[in-house]
Each structure stands twice: as C-alpha cells, then as structure tokens.
Specification:
77 residues; 2 helices; globular
Length: 77
C-alpha cells in the first residue's frame, strides 16, 4: 500500500501490517528510503475515532469497492 501527499509524491510505502502483542505494526519505507516500523496502540486507535466523521465512515465501504474494481482492471504482470 502506498500513501501519497497532495502532489502525488510517495510519503510511505507500507510492505506489511501485523499484530505484535496488543499493537498493530506497519512496516515500510518513508519517503522512499527510510525504513520504519509504525506502532498503533489500542489507546491511540480509540482516540483516533474522534477524527472520523460520519461522511468518512459512510465513504469507506465505497472506497474499498472502487479500489477492488480498479485493481481488477489493471493488466496482470
């Protein structure tokens, strides 16, 4: 998974998402070169709920469907 800034520059390329004890760990490269492990603890995940508006919650399922449809249209390597 790749995360971009508003200009289309790659900010983080996530190579794995795994569970370590109670935390979620994202492993990848930040800005294309710097390896990083980002930990999301249960407390921070709970606090992040305040960032979600109803419009975002309603949009997530359609975003997943759009991504699935777009990935099916790409030719196989």
């Amino acid at each position: 998974m790749i995360m971009y800034d508003v200009y289309g520059n790659v900010m983080m390329e996530i190579s794995s998402l795994e569970r370590k004890a109670d935390d979620l760990v994202m492993k990848g490269k930040m800005m294309g070169t710097m390896p990083a492990c980002i930990y999301l603890r249960p407390k921070e995940a709970w606090q992040a709920k305040s960032l979600l508006s109803w419009s975002i919650i309603w949009y997530v399922p359609s975003m997943l469907i759009k991504g699935w449809l777009q990935s099916r249209k790409q030719p196989s390597p």
